[in-house]
Specification:
The chain has strands at residues 4-7, 18-21, 28-35, 41-48, 54-60, 64-67. A six-stranded antiparallel beta sheet has the order 1-6-2-3-4-5, with no helix packed on it. The chain is mostly beta strands. Helix content is 0%, strand content 45%. It has no helices and six strands.
Protein backbone atom coordinates (compact mmCIF):
# COMPACT_ATOMS: atom_id res chain seq x y z
CA UNK A 1 0.00 0.00 0.00
CA UNK A 2 1.31 3.44 -0.93
CA UNK A 3 1.23 6.00 1.86
CA UNK A 4 0.25 9.42 0.56
CA UNK A 5 1.03 12.53 2.53
CA UNK A 6 -0.10 15.67 0.76
CA UNK A 7 -1.31 17.47 -2.30
CA UNK A 8 1.24 18.53 -4.90
CA UNK A 9 2.36 22.16 -4.97
CA UNK A 10 4.33 23.37 -7.99
CA UNK A 11 6.26 25.82 -5.78
CA UNK A 12 7.44 23.25 -3.23
CA UNK A 13 7.31 19.80 -4.87
CA UNK A 14 10.48 19.21 -6.91
CA UNK A 15 10.67 17.57 -10.31
CA UNK A 16 11.56 13.91 -9.76
CA UNK A 17 9.21 13.47 -6.79
CA UNK A 18 7.15 10.30 -6.58
CA UNK A 19 3.41 10.89 -6.86
CA UNK A 20 0.22 8.90 -7.33
CA UNK A 21 -3.37 9.66 -8.25
CA UNK A 22 -5.60 10.34 -5.28
CA UNK A 23 -7.89 7.60 -6.58
CA UNK A 24 -5.03 5.08 -6.64
CA UNK A 25 -2.86 3.62 -9.36
CA UNK A 26 0.86 3.23 -9.99
CA UNK A 27 3.61 5.32 -8.45
CA UNK A 28 4.72 7.94 -10.98
CA UNK A 29 7.67 10.29 -11.33
CA UNK A 30 6.85 13.98 -11.68
CA UNK A 31 8.57 15.26 -14.85
CA UNK A 32 7.41 18.82 -15.37
CA UNK A 33 4.76 21.44 -14.59
CA UNK A 34 2.69 23.44 -17.06
CA UNK A 35 0.21 26.26 -16.59
CA UNK A 36 -2.91 26.08 -18.74
CA UNK A 37 -5.62 28.67 -19.32
CA UNK A 38 -7.28 30.21 -16.27
CA UNK A 39 -4.30 29.36 -14.05
CA UNK A 40 -4.84 25.59 -14.01
CA UNK A 41 -1.48 23.91 -13.33
CA UNK A 42 -0.83 20.40 -14.54
CA UNK A 43 1.98 17.93 -13.93
CA UNK A 44 3.52 15.68 -16.57
CA UNK A 45 4.14 12.30 -14.97
CA UNK A 46 5.82 9.11 -16.15
CA UNK A 47 5.59 5.52 -14.93
CA UNK A 48 6.35 2.00 -16.08
CA UNK A 49 3.43 -0.02 -17.40
CA UNK A 50 3.25 -3.76 -18.03
CA UNK A 51 6.20 -5.23 -19.91
CA UNK A 52 8.40 -2.25 -18.94
CA UNK A 53 6.70 0.18 -21.32
CA UNK A 54 7.08 3.81 -20.22
CA UNK A 55 3.87 5.81 -20.09
CA UNK A 56 3.43 9.58 -19.77
CA UNK A 57 0.34 11.65 -19.04
CA UNK A 58 -0.49 15.15 -17.90
CA UNK A 59 -2.67 15.40 -14.76
CA UNK A 60 -4.21 18.39 -12.96
CA UNK A 61 -2.36 18.95 -9.66
CA UNK A 62 -5.62 18.53 -7.74
CA UNK A 63 -5.71 14.86 -8.83
CA UNK A 64 -2.24 13.99 -7.47
CA UNK A 65 -0.77 13.36 -4.06
CA UNK A 66 2.84 13.06 -2.96
CA UNK A 67 4.02 9.58 -1.94
CA UNK A 68 5.82 9.71 1.39
CA UNK A 69 9.45 8.71 1.71
CA UNK A 70 11.35 7.20 4.60
CA UNK A 71 13.27 10.17 6.07
CA UNK A 72 16.26 7.98 7.01
CA UNK A 73 16.76 6.15 3.72
CA UNK A 74 14.83 8.20 1.16
CA UNK A 75 13.04 5.01 0.09
CA UNK A 76 9.38 5.23 -0.87
CA UNK A 77 7.13 3.73 1.83
CA UNK A 78 4.76 1.03 0.65
Amino acid sequence: MVICESMINSNTTPIGSVVTLKSGGPKMTLEDYRELNRGVITAMCMWFHEYSAVRRYEFPLACLTLVSENPKTGAVNQ
